[in-house]
Design goal:
The protein has 208 residues and is mainly alpha-helical. The chain has a domain of 145 residues. Helices cover 80% and strands 0% of the residues. The protein has ten helices and no strands. The longest helix is centred in the C-terminal third of the chain and has 30 residues.
Amino acid sequence: MIELFASAFVLGLAFNAAPGSIFAESLRRGLRGGFGSALAVQVGSLVGDFTWAVLGLLGAAALFTLSHVEVPLALAGAALLAWMAWQAIADGLGPMPAFDERAGSRLDRSALVSGAALSLSNPMNVTYWAALGGTITALGVDRPGWEAFTVFLAGFMASSLLWCFLCAGLIAWTRRHLGPTTWRLINLGCALGLAFFSALVVWRIASA
């Protein structure tokens, strides 16, 4: 079980370090609010990931294969991503805010909600966790039961929590060394990334 925990820990780091909409929103929020805002997005997404993990392990993935469940949820996620892209454009075109050390140390509740909403509005998460049994088997556990699932989930979530602080710390450090031009370019880059993911969701729905 120790090897399973370690494998899940490494897999969790690789999963979370991959650039995506959560990272883009963490970067956008962190550039404005510092460590606390970036951490809030990450922790919020972790809450959503844990919710999907439980649903996936309970076999709820079958429910989300129904078009009248999956499509509205996916469209809501696309709309959320598009709105965040617009907010990033507004931040990039506006003046660079002064960095506030006190604000950067507080957990931003709106960023927390944004992170959770991004994760919860992605129905692909429950599909990933529903396939967890095959992943655990590939790691050398024959006929995995609840003990194996629990150990894997614990390892995955432990590395995800560690990544929350690493990512937020890196963004906060970057924020201290930004000038107005870099601020604008990064925000516009985040806007493009968020808009891309929004369009990708819509394209997948239309082509399904």
